[in-house]
Amino acid sequence: MTDKPYCILPWYHQLVQSSGKMLPCCSWAGPPIDSNYGDFFHSQFMQDLRLDMLSGNIPDECRHCVYAETQTGESHRTHGWILATDAEVDWRDAPTLRRQEVNLSNVCNLRCRSCDSSRSTKWAADEIAMKLTPHALESVDWRLSPDQVTSIKQLDFLGGEPLLHQEQICDELEKMKNARSIDQLILHFTTNGTIYFSDRMLDLLRYCRYTWVNVSIDGYGILNEYIRSDSDWHEIDKNLRRLDQLAQQLCNFGFGVNHCYSVLNANAAYPLLQYLADFKTDIKLGITMVNGPNQYDARNLPNDAKIWITDRYMALLDNIPNYRHALESMISHLKEPATMQHDAWVKKFTTFNNFLDTRRHAALLDANKELYDMLDIW
Description:
By secondary structure, the protein is α/β, with parallel strands linked by helices. The protein has a single domain, classed as pyruvate-formate lyase- activating enzyme, CATH 3.80.30. The chain contains 15 helices and ten strands. The strands form two sheets. Strands 2-1-3-5-6-7-9-10 form an eight-stranded mixed beta sheet.
């Protein structure tokens, strides 16, 4: 037994997939568990996992957090310890479900290039054209049990696009408001930025302890529209400005941006960082390294391109101190060896990306000419 478990999340947390299956957390690299979400937290699987964590073992399914910590020193696991301290969770006490990550459905209004139909139903037609079998529509009838109405301290809504399900979420928040437990609730939304809050949701947010909105943005302007197909940059900009105003008005509200770093935007971080620095709110920026599909992993870029991009970002480190950490993460990632042999990567990347360009009437040359010229693989 160790002084404390490797990860504390199994003592207070679970993830609900849109299929109704369960995971210990969103970083878990193993298959989902076919279990009722009301029973999963106390299942034999979770009891065994807690014993494993207490023995000092690091399950292979935790490899995403292990890798993230080699790059940035942070991960879902380390964040879990911070949240546990805030929620006064003690691993020596009986496990109590206090936090849920909830994927209400795989319905989304975008077709992001590193996504698929398991996260966006809009991907189905493209997958059929690739002669793949798309995921079916999934939607979980998620509800808070009477016990959870008073025990839950944090809810994280993911997707699909969670803001397409605001009425379902509001129904459960109303239960917490009526039980007078909503003032202890921390809410998180991960959204693509194309949809704003309904009036009913805005009213309920005022009662919560805190609300944090994480907006997924993969580039500035046309580059974001290219990577996150069907998005409209003007609409996203308008909604970000509204979130900025809300953050100025409410002391219990904040928002940040998550950036999926890939081949497609590897060279183009600076315009986005300049844009974010223009807001009144000090916008936190999180970086997710795309490692699937493998052809979009930035580590597979040609070595001369990786060196050129790394030198560019090294020169920018002192110019944008608020985002130095983000640039350092990108630099560290690019310095790692490729995960594919170069010729195999070129073939897979060009075939896949050109196929999507044709299907979606888009062109990398228009969205990121510098990268297009730099690759010289066409």
